[in-house]
């Protein structure tokens, strides 16, 4: 990766996005998701990866990184069609579009997971890497403001959807396959405004560890990345202006992270040659916060 200067909080416009989880193409301060000087080394050549939430934010950066490394990439997204098109356009600079499949739907629906697996196998014939990255959050100041609908919706997207997709995909995954989950620093540090979201990420962490034990005999590795404050459409679509304009300022790095800064961790965990002895673990990418686990 070439040396880059990432924006400080005062360089990020404190904008607000009306739609949740946000549309990246509407952001005035665009997240940094690609290092155009880095072309990749075919480390994932011949592998097929499913990436939920692959149309924007962290998912977009991972999708592009995997394309550079030669993988077939299945981008799963809900309804952000323009973002998905923009991601494919960025990927097409490094790979043939025949190696990209877009699938739209609600990850919280168990039937959609069956569709994802079916279409992936029909087009590419295998599932070697599964990145569970899709998530939503709805800040509330107090637990009594979190109604049943919000609680169920957050868990359906952030955790049940992961469970459904893993359950469908695992029977088709072979030795040396890799499952990578996106957890969060909130699973370890907590967040008073994100009580339900933090709980889903805590469930994700326990799921990652338990699934790693369960699949060890099959030689399928299961790990997770726990991001800290990362500048994605999720932030200006869910937090107020005051939170957005200071986003990431309280980290040791003094700024929010960019999606590009996480992508290599997902490549590392997917590439068996490099991470063959790693399972049940968490890579913390959070600007310097020290957490247990």
TrEMBL record:
Return the InterPro entries for the record: NAD(P)-bd_dom_sf, Sc_DH/Rdtase_CS, SDR_fam
Look up keyword DNA damage and say if it applies.
no
Stored PROSITE patterns: ADH_SHORT
> Keywords on this record?
Oxidoreductase
Q: Where is this region: Disordered?
A: 1-27
Looking up Pfam families in the UniProt record yields:
adh_short_C2 (PF13561)
Has keyword Ribosomal protein?
no
The domain of life for this entry's organism is Bacteria
What PANTHER family does the entry give? NADPH-DEPENDENT ALDEHYDE REDUCTASE 1, CHLOROPLASTIC, NADPH-DEPENDENT ALDEHYDE REDUCTASE-LIKE PROTEIN, CHLOROPLASTIC-RELATED
Q: Can you tell me which family this protein belongs to?
A: Belongs to the short-chain dehydrogenases/reductases (SDR) family.
Q: Report what the protein is called.
A: NAD(P)-dependent dehydrogenase (Short-subunit alcohol dehydrogenase family)
């Amino acid at each position: 990766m070439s040396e880059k200067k990432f924006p400080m909080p005062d360089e990020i416009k404190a904008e607000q996005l009306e739609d949740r989880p946000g549309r990246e193409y509407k952001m005035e301060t665009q997240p940094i998701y690609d290092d155009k000087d880095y072309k990749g080394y075919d480390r994932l050549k011949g592998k097929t990866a499913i990436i939920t939430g692959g149309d924007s934010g962290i998912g977009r950066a991972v999708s592009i990184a995997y394309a550079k490394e030669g993988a077939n990439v299945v981008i799963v997204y809900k309804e952000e069609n323009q973002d998905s098109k923009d991601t494919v356009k960025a990927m097409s600079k490094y790979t043939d579009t025949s190696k990209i499949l877009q699938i739209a739907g609600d990850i919280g629906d168990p039937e959609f997971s069956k569709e994802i697996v079916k279409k992936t196998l029909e087009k590419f014939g295998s599932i070697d890497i599964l990145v569970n990255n899709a998530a939503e959050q709805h800040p509330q100041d107090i637990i009594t403001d979190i109604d049943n609908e919000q609680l169920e919706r957050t868990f359906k997207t952030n955790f049940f959807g992961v469970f459904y997709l893993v359950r469908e995909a695992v029977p088709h995954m072979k030795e040396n396959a890799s499952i990578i989950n996106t957890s969060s620093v909130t699973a370890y540090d907590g967040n008073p405004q994100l009580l339900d979201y933090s709980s889903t990420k805590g469930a994700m962490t326990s799921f990652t560890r338990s699934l790693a034990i369960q699949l060890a005999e099959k030689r399928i590795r299961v790990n997770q990345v726990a991001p800290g404050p990362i500048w994605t459409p999720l932030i200006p679509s869910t937090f107020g202006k005051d939170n957005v304009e200071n986003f990431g300022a309280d980290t040791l790095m003094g700024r929010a992270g960019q999606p590009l800064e996480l992508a290599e961790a997902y490549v590392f965990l997917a590439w068996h040659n490099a991470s063959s002895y790693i399972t049940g673990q968490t890579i913390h990418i959070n600007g310097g916060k020290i957490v247990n686990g």
